[in-house]
Design a protein that fits this description.
The structure is a single chain. By secondary structure, this protein is of the alpha/beta class. The protein has 11 helices and 9 strands. The chain has an 8-stranded mixed barrel with strand order 1-2-4-5-6-7-8-9, surrounded by 4 helices. A hairpin with a 5-residue loop joins strand 1 and strand 2. Helix 2 packs across helix 3 and helix 3 packs parallel to helix 5. The longest helix has 23 residues. The radius of gyration is 20 Å and the shape is globular. Bound molecules: ligand C2E and calcium ion (CA) (3 copies). The site of one calcium ion has 4 residues, from loops. One calcium ion (CA) binds next to strand 6. This is Two-component system response regulator. Keywords: Phosphoprotein. It comes from Shewanella ulleungensis.
């Protein structure tokens, strides 16, 4: 049409059909309820090596494809809008588990749950969070919501209002993948944020790359000066732990301490 043409190959057709099928299967998984799981990855204090929290990470135990990671279905869950329902479920499920851990473990300070940009910007997220806390009677300060810079930056005015509403519930707020989005120092001043989560891409190079080390050190200092906490993600080696501890990074998360697993297994 319009004096143009587009190539439509069998490969593209197959990709589209695969995606539509996966979407239908995810819809069914949500209805059935037992294929979606949360795995939990420990977060460890750099000062005393205690496990102080967990990040809840989504898994899909697909009937034929096996255990899928968010990498395999998150883009589709976002574009189809299914992430809203999944996210609502994940909040309740993570709060349930957090309540159990809280009763058993006095070192426990947080259950971190990821919020996607779509959830943050379009769903009734304040009600979802309020509801999860009410249903599980989890003390609000034990729930930390991880939000990426890109989710916030798409509509700054609304985001500020929303962050303050979430903060009013008493939950903690973390900026996820800090340093990789459209970081603006201005929002650190104006937003009610508790924690900066230093992105794995900086942690990867921290031991051998002076620039990565300088960025990580500067983020920790910035957070300290603003009264914010810091957590490093993707810590895999002892040398990274030693350097981050020396820098004053509060908490550490990564394969060095444990991969995400079911809580039963943990
Ligand atoms: P993220 O929030 O940045 O989560 C960290 C990812 O890094 C996780 O991948 C985790 O398993 C992985 N990871 C942790 N430590 C290490 C390490 O030492 N080395 C390496 N190589 N990787 C490490 P995962 O579980 O596949 O999750 C991928 C992304 O999917 C997450 O990135 C997050 O953006 C998204 N996601 C996961 N669960 C949820 C959820 O419940 N809701 C939403 N909206 N997004 C989720
Ligand atoms: Ca995260
Ligand atoms: Ca992250
Ligand atoms: Ca990351």
């Amino acid at each position: 049409g319009k004096n143009g043409y587009q190539l439509f190959s069998h490969d593209m057709h197959k990709t589209l059909m695969d995606r539509l099928q996966l979407e239908a299967e995810l819809r069914e998984a949500i209805t059935l309820g037992d294929q979606l799981k949360l795995h939990y990855q420990p977060q460890v204090s750099s000062t005393n090596d205690n496990v102080v929290g967990y990040e809840a990470l989504l898994r899909w135990n697909h009937p034929t494809k096996g255990m899928l990671s968010p990498f395999d279905f998150m883009a589709m869950a976002e574009s189809s809008g299914l992430i809203i329902q999944i996210g609502e479920w994940a909040l309740i499920e993570a709060c349930k588990k957090a309540k159990k851990i809280h009763v058993a473990d006095s070192n426990f300070t947080r259950m971190a749950v990821n919020l996607s940009a779509l959830q943050f910007n379009h769903a009734n997220i304040v009600d979802h969070v309020k509801n999860a806390l009410l249903l599980t009677s989890l003390p609000a300060h034990l729930l930390e919501l991880e939000i990426t810079e890109s989710a916030i930056i798409s509509n700054v005015e609304d985001a500020i209002a929303l962050l303050f509403k979430l903060k009013e519930l008493g939950v903690q707020l973390a900026i996820d993948d800090f340093g990789t989005g459209y970081s603006s120092l201005n929002y650190l001043k104006n937003f009610p944020i508790d924690t900066l989560k230093i992105d794995k891409s900086f942690i990867d190079g921290i031991v051998h790359n002076q620039k990565d080390a300088a960025i990580a050190r500067t983020i920790v200092q910035l957070a300290l000066n603003l009264g914010l906490g810091t957590i490093a993600e993707g810590v895999e080696h002892v040398e990274q732990y030693e350097l981050l501890k020396e820098m004053g990074c509060n908490d550490l998360q990564g394969y060095l301490y444990g991969k995400p697993v079911s809580l039963e297994r943990f």
